[in-house]
Design a protein that fits this description.
The chain is of the alpha/beta class. Helix 3 runs parallel beside helix 11 and helix 9 runs parallel beside helix 12. Strand 7, helix 9 and strand 8 form a beta-alpha-beta unit. The protein is built from 13 helices and 17 strands. Strands 1, 10, 11, 12, 13, 14, 15, 16 and 17 form a nine-stranded mixed sheet that branches. An eight-stranded parallel β-barrel has the order 2-3-4-5-6-7-8-9, surrounded by seven helices. Helices cover 29% and strands 20% of the residues. The longest helix is centred in the middle third of the chain and has 19 residues.
């Protein structure tokens, strides 16, 4: 099982998290929970929110950040939003109740998603939430649900012209009809502007469509509607790894690097390196010239008096958490090993999109090897102090339950009881697809708080469900 420079993708260095992982805490938590767990770092969330606000301030643009709650179910993030005034983007009645229940004010919530239920719409109207209207019949239902004391606050969601087959948003004819209905129902609704959401992570298309929405606001104002804000949705990339490492990985990886000859193409993978990510992507959007000409978007927003809204999810969770599994078994195969972790790939969601979560898992050894002394496996097994390649399977009866199809290069041979740390999993990976399959408990979420130079832990207040 010699390791000869196999393709690898180390995550960006994270000294603070590395210091935590080097101590006893991960091993103590693994013992306490008897299974996998997630670590959450709320201070990183706060720093990412602050970075987006700084980008707005630098451009002189009035704006508001809404955290896309679907990216992670933990209560810790919503608690931070309530404290620092960050908005929350919700798309279900459960998410709306969670946000309100953790102290986020209704005026700081935006309700998105298609074909919203009447219960969701009624509470959103009563609480003064901003509702992104996705269809004409939804607009009609909102008008019927409004009370005499509070008009419904609305955005009209634009169908992206470059993505005409999207099932979301209003096309040109529907927008014209919706605007007239809003004008006719001016006492019942307050049409505050427009929204869109684009697939992918390119910045120029977002600036282009945002420029169009600014013009739509001016048109709506001519009809007597307030129309003073636009939402550009999410899609702010996260930079997981260095450019050189990402380029080398894509050039070198192939079917021989995966268990069972599994094949992936570069198009199957999330872009784990992005030269323009997070708040820098917002800077690029604001500096871009819509449709390639005229004034930059930031100037157009200021001149038109339009507030910019955005709904990042993954980007606000960058480096804000990781996932820890314990090695439950080690099996030999020709040229590599198969590790079985004490959880499932349902807690590492990328695998369920016919893809692979590529940042290298980090091995935390136990016992003698953790202290740097040589260790020996059971008689007849290979020495475990030499490097080895291994894939990682889940503890279920499904062949497809693979946390990592790739034969990752580990510095020593993993043993049962060792820990595997998957870095930077807070954005969508942790819990989007979690399920108590086989009656396995869902991994608890452990919040790490730091004060006076000391790291303390607590369980997230929202129990797994």
């Amino acid at each position: 099982m010699a390791v000869t420079n196999p393709p690898s993708l180390p995550a960006h260095p994270d000294p603070r998290l590395d210091a935590i992982l080097a101590g006893d805490l991960p091993h103590e938590l693994a013992h306490a929970f008897g299974g996998p767990f997630h670590l959450l770092l709320p201070e990183r969330f706060d720093a990412n929110v602050a970075a987006f606000r700084t980008a707005l301030d630098e451009a002189g643009v009035d704006g508001h950040v809404y955290y896309a709650k679907k990216a992670n179910k933990a209560a810790a993030w919503i608690e931070r939003c309530a404290v620092n005034g960050t908005g929350v983007d919700v798309a279900s009645l459960g998410e709306l109740r969670e946000a309100l229940g953790h102290g986020v004010r209704g005026e700081n919530l935006v309700v998105t998603g298609p074909a919203k239920s009447d219960d969701l719409l009624r509470i959103a109207v009563l609480q003064g939430c901003l509702i992104a209207v996705d269809a004409l019949d939804e607009l009609d239902r909102i008008v019927a649900l409004t009370t005499v004391t509070r008009p419904a606050r609305l955005l009209l969601r634009r169908l992206p012209p470059a993505q005409p087959h999207s099932r979301f948003g209003l096309d040109d004819a529907e927008l014209a009809t919706a605007l007239q209905r809003c004008a006719d129902a001016v006492g019942s609704v307050r049409m505050e502007g427009f929204s869109f959401h684009l697939s992918g992570y390119a910045t120029q298309p977002r600036a282009d469509l945002a420029g169009e929405l600014v013009e739509l606001c001016l048109k709506a104002r001519a009809m007597g509607l307030p129309a003073d804000r636009i939402s550009i949705g999410g899609g702010f990339a996260v930079d997981y790894a260095a450019a050189g490492d990402w380029e080398r990985f894509l050039a070198e990886q192939g079917p021989g690097d995966y268990h069972a000859g599994k094949t992936f193409t570069p198009a199957d993978f999330y872009p784990y390196h992005s030269p323009v990510a997070g708040a820098d992507a917002l800077r690029a959007i604001l500096a871009a010239r819509p449709s390639g000409g005229g004034a930059p978007l930031a100037d157009r927003l200021r001149e038109a008096g339009v507030t910019l809204l955005m709904e990042p999810g993954r980007a606000l969770l960058d480096r804000a958490g990781c996932t820890v599994f314990r090695v439950q078994g080690v099996k030999e195969r020709s040229g590599y090993a198969i590790l079985t972790a004490d959880g499932t790939s349902l807690s590492l969601s990328e695998q369920w999109f016919n893809s692979e979560y590529l940042p290298d898992p980090v091995l935390l050894t136990t016992g003698e090897r953790r202290e740097g002394a040589p260790g020996l496996p059971n008689p007849g097994e290979r020495p475990d102090t030499a490097p080895v390649r291994a894939c990682v399977g889940g503890a279920t009866c499904l062949e497809s339950d693979m946390l990592t199809w790739r034969k990752v290069a580990f510095p020593v041979r993993p043993r049962p009881g060792d820990l595997l740390v998957y870095p930077n999993t807070a954005g969508y990976q942790m819990d989007s697809n979690e399920s108590p399959f086989h009656d396995l408990s869902l991994p608890p979420k452990v919040v790490l708080d730091e004060a006076d130079g000391r790291v303390r832990w607590r369980l997230d207040r929202r129990p797994p469900s």
